[in-house]
Design a protein that fits this description.
This protein is an alpha+beta fold and 420 residues long. It has 3 domains: 174 residues, FAD/NAD(P)-binding domain (3-Layer(bba) Sandwich); 111 residues, no CATH class; 97 residues. Helix content is 36%, strand content 22%. The protein has a 6-stranded mixed beta sheet, with helices on one face. A 5-stranded antiparallel beta sheet has the order 16-17-18-15-19, with helices on one face. The chain has a 3-stranded antiparallel beta sheet with strand order 5-9-6. The model has no long low-confidence stretch (mean pLDDT 95).
Length: 420
């Protein structure tokens, strides 16, 4: 079949690779001048930085398999270590290696800074989640689910895990989706919760090697090509007048909604109705400084907005450069703006971390539509749009929030829907 994939982010690249492997004649079109969508590398004053820091975990089986297929070796490109959620004062949780459930119990008993009452409360809550098969009422929020837990557990564990996984504050986040993430990460099997921290720019993990693999395999790949029209053409589809047997829309939900407005209005309306949550990244420079962990949790507050900091020097990046991440950043951006948030992060770093030299602001960036708001009861559009027309992206209906793994799985599934 002659297959078009519209969009060269992680979902589109996954779809194009899967379609080539299925023997189809594939054309991949991306309207930006680069591959990777919202997870790519950018250049800033001679430094190769990511447009935002991303974490992979051991449960990302489809993403890791795809990396290997296109020649990007995860064991080389990713720093793998057991889940650590530690704060600068040493408090927090660290999972040991081994079977999931015993490892979680051992981690809770060994956690620093929690009382015995708090440890037992968390274990009791985990037992309740397991007894309920990690399901929650569709309209329940994470804050509602966790209301009975001690405040320290909510602030030091649940809130940062929720904001990292769903990019949605606990008071607005879906309890059902959060429980699914906890199950598949913490309780699914050995290594599922392992942190996989990029030791190379994001573009090197998948976008660049996947595009090169597609070219070698004979696919036609185009950058700076925005598709303007989608029309039915017999038993296939025409993009800007050129006919294809099947089409995968792996663009943003907004672009997919625009293209399908005339041919699938109900699907288009659903794809166009998302509310979005930004992520802000602030890079600071502090020559000679290091963190004990490459990823360190921070206690966030309105005047100290970052929840995590990455030591890029500890991840084979430039020494003395630190990336501070503010997930769920909409309220902060509306209140203070990007420059105001960057200034607040600089003050937060100065107060929370013991630096060898005073930090200086290097760069700040906001991905304003980083993810959809993962709210309770959210209705996400299905992969199937119309016969031989499918959509792919981290926003497509599924059990997970907007993640790289969700994007890859959606891309692979869309090929089966469009070409099956």
């Amino acid at each position: 079949m002659r297959v078009a994939v519209v969009g060269g982010g992680w979902a589109g690249l996954a779809a194009a690779v899967r379609a080539v492997e299925a023997g189809h004649n594939v054309t991949l079109m991306e309207m930006a001048p680069h591959w990777g969508g919202r997870a790519r590398a950018v250049d800033h004053d001679g430094l190769r930085l990511d447009n935002g820091q991303h974490i992979l975990i051991g449960a990302y089986t489809h993403t890791l398999a795809l990396m290997r297929r296109v020649g990007a070796e995860p064991d080389t490109l990713l720093d793998r270590r057991p889940l650590v959620l530690r704060y600068p004062d040493g408090s927090g949780l660290q999972l040991p290696r081994g079977p999931a459930l015993p490892a979680f119990v051992r981690a809770v008993f060994a956690a620093q800074g929690w009382t015995w009452r708090e440890r037992l409360a968390l274990l009791a809550a985990a037992a309740r989640w397991r007894a309920a098969r990690f399901r929650a009422p569709p309209q329940q929020t994470v804050a509602g689910l966790m209301r009975g837990l001690p405040a320290r557990l909510r602030e030091d564990l649940i809130d940062p895990l929720c904001i990292a996984a769903l990019n949605t504050p606990a008071e607005r986040a879906s309890a059902q989706v959060f429980l699914r993430v906890l199950h598949d990460a913490l309780f699914a099997g050995p290594g599922a919760a392992d942190l996989l921290l990029p030791r190379a720019p994001l573009s090197a993990l998948l976008p660049t090697p996947a595009a090169a693999w597609l070219r070698r395999a004979g696919a036609h790949v185009e950058l700076t090509r925005r598709v303007m029209t989608l029309e039915a053409a017999g038993n296939g589809w025409a993009l800007d007048g050129e006919r294809y047997d099947a089409v995968v829309l792996a663009s943003s939900a907004t672009e997919a909604g625009r293209l399908t407005h005339a041919v699938a209005p109900a699907w288009s309306a659903q794809a166009s109705a998302f509310d979005y949550e930004p992520i802000v990244t602030v890079w600071l420079r502090s020559a000679g400084s290091r963190l004990e962990q490459p990823l360190t949790a921070l206690r966030a507050a309105p005047d100290a907005p970052a929840q995590f900091v990455f030591d890029l020097g500890a991840l084979d990046g430039p020494d003395g450069i630190f990336a501070f991440v503010v997930s769920g950043a909409r309220d902060g951006l509306e209140r203070a703006g990007l420059a105001g948030m960057a200034a607040a992060v600089l003050r937060q770093a100065t107060t929370a971390l013991l630096w060898q030299t005073p930090p200086a602001l290097l760069h700040q960036a906001a991905e304003r539509r980083a993810t959809f708001v993962c709210a309770p009861g959210l209705k996400r559009p299905p992969a199937a749009v119309a016969p031989r027309l499918a959509a792919a992206g981290d926003y497509i209906a599924g059990p997970y929030p907007a993640t790289l793994e969700g994007a890859v799985r959606a891309g692979e599934a869309a090929v089966r829907v469009a070409c099956g």
